[in-house]
Amino acid sequence: MRGTEPEGHGPVRYGPPLPGQGLPVPPGLAAAAAGAHTEPTGGGPALLDAACAYWARRGLPADRDRTVAAPGAPALLLALTAALGGDVLLPRPCAAWWAPQARLLGRSVFHVGTPAECGGVPDPYALLETVRRVRAEGGDPRLLVLSVADDPAATVAPPEVVHETIEAAAAEGLHLVSDETWRDTLHEPQDTVLLSPAEMLPDRVTVLTDLSGPFLPPGWPAAVARFPDNATGSRLRDRVLDVLTALGARIAAPVAAAAAYALDEPDEITVRLAASVRLHARVAAAAHHAVVTAGALSRPPRAGRHLYADLGPLRHALVRRGVGDAQELEDFLTARLGMPAPGGHRFGDDLGALRVRLATGPLLGTTDEERSASLTSPEPLELPHVERALSLLGSSFDDLRDDARRWESPR
Q: Kindly report the CA angle at 306 between 304 and 312, in degrees rounded to 5?
């Protein structure tokens, strides 16, 4: 019997975390993580003011009474989903933590395909068709979650695609949650236009940012949400605070202090973030080259610390190795590469599709010394530990390509 749900790897019990930076914590950030006071539900004034200033610098003005903080984005999305009610629409694929929040609340989840050029944002025509079909069958779609800079696809949706999707969502009366966790990790920020849905549809968009994307290590959970500046936004924020209170979901005081420090964006934080983005962009480009050279399919990564690969063209070689679905692919590559390689079924793709998310953090080294060297080196790809990791990745995919060619060759 195939182990599609091995112990510890169920759809909720195993949720692949956000791709981490894999880098030591900056000294100033570590020093800021102090305090013994109790942080109130929804975040204290210092954290909320820092979040408002952070959004204002990105053209999204916010007030303290339109902002909420929580211990991680999953807690915030859970509270938002509970507060809004109804069924949930998600792009396919999508971040691994989106769907479990709705399912834990007993809500129906409907995935919508994405356009060819990007992930994270549903195709507008498919979105309209899905909403109308769900309603015709007695469903009640109310919430669309999307992300312009995407996990798992690592793409950035073009503004025209975002515009068309937002128009379709508005026409159907949906509330949108824009997950902007990765907006500050664009690989080519000078040449990439990122349009927040909140800029286009401010009355119906709640912005959500998990701070482990740009700023904090994964073990320091903190996220912030920005609500619409209208009566609907006020009611939604109040309901979200009620849910967070019932859950006891308050940020630990040291983490809140570190989050406020990071959101203020002092030089230490901005310089480190820029260096980290450059490093992960170079490693992601090298990993992408290795994957597509071997015959797999993958959109070029444009944001984040990951890439998403479709190994469908290598299916014959994988089947010969006992790999027939995404769970088996996850197990195979995790063991082969010595790093987590969550299958596409974690992100809403079909179990039978041979897709996988590969993170770049594990390729930077296995010790703080190696990871620090990767960050500061002018040529990180030439460092022995990075070169070894990329070589193992490349050889693993090359072996599959060579097997596929042998399998297809006339005998």
A: 140
Query: Residue 328 in contact with residue 322, Cβ under 8 Å?
Result: yes
On the 0-12 / 13-18 / 19+ scale of CB atoms within 10 A, 3 is exposed
- Calculate helix-pair angle for 267-293, 384-408, nearest 10 degrees: 30
* pTM attached to this predicted model: 0.93
10: pLDDT strictly greater than 60: no
pLDDT band at 374 (very low <50, low <70, confident <90, very high): very high
Nearest to 211 by CA among 76, 338, 73: 73
Q: Are 390 and 286 in contact (CB under 8 A)?
A: yes
**Closest CA relative to residue 12, chosen from 93, 92, 84, 102:** 102
Task: Report the residue count for the chain.
Answer: 411
Phi, psi of 282 (to 5 degrees): -65, -45
- Inter-residue contact 344 to 326 (CB < 8 Å): yes
Contact 374, 386 (CB under 8 A): yes
Distance CA 87, CA 110 (A): 8
